[in-house]
Amino acid sequence: MKKFSLIVLISTVLLKTGYAQKRDTVIVELAKTSKVIFTIQDKKDLEILKHYDFQKLFQDVIANLEKRDSATIKKDSVQTPVAKKTESEDDDKFWHKHEGNDDDDDDNDDDGGNWNHKHWRRTSQSFNFDLGMNNYLSKGKFPDSKNEAYAVKPWGSWYFAANSIQRSRLGKNFFMEWGVGMSWYNFKFQNSNTIIQKDDTGVNFIPDPRGYDYLKSKLTATYINASLIPIIDFGDRNKKHRVWDGDGDSFRIGLGPYVGYRIASHSKLLYKENGHREKDKDRDSFYLNNVRYGARLQLGIRSTDFFFNYDMNELFTSGKGPNLNAFSFGVIF
Prior knowledge:
mainly beta, eight-stranded antiparallel β-barrel, two-stranded antiparallel sheet, 13 strands, 43% strand, elongated
């Protein structure tokens, strides 16, 4: 009994000193080669330990040691604490099986050198927006260099896209971004009186002969898209950086394909007639290609990501419109 009284005394001292320890691990030396280690993750457990039957615990330990059995006590061989519980405490468990390192939080993606196999095939999802400008090239040159009627204004020709992106880790710094979304081309013509005429031979861009006070003329095309972009991220982050995060410190680069399918298109002419704003809107295909495909470049510096899209196929059906390859660039939010 003296032996067990000493154990109970040591346990009581341990519980009292546990409040004063900054760390959650306390080691008690019992003999020259024996010691007891207490690891407490939540100090609320100390209230449960005050009522714990340590004498029964050490009886089981010593009995197994005397029998030269394994020194590990199974969870089922230890009685639960004898303490008054509230209904909210009935579901609490005092014994927890733990494997590995508690400091390795699977939700922490900025673990740097602690990267291990558990990060493989991890996927995070984000909803991103592309905001920028669009234009097109005709045989590598801008149409305004020849004063073409379909030349567009850089400012006001907005590109917008909304995408649902999955980011899958394939290696320590290698990711695959894949997803679907919707995008809008807005080509605002330099000449505000430009209208698009369509006939059996194709489309023609001509000035409106009515002579109104013209404000804006543009062509809009809407697509649903899918993309697959391999990313090298030197910051080793599984989650995508955001402009508003403010804590990114890495460089990212990715290049991959995308494909889109046109679901709508229209032209719009805005003008004033007798002091009143009027709008002519024509919903038509205008011989636009139903499919667009190309390459997308993404660059990330700190917490800001940029994109550049280039359509490898022409905007209009061959022989039905000018030979134009559209492109867009801007910021990813």
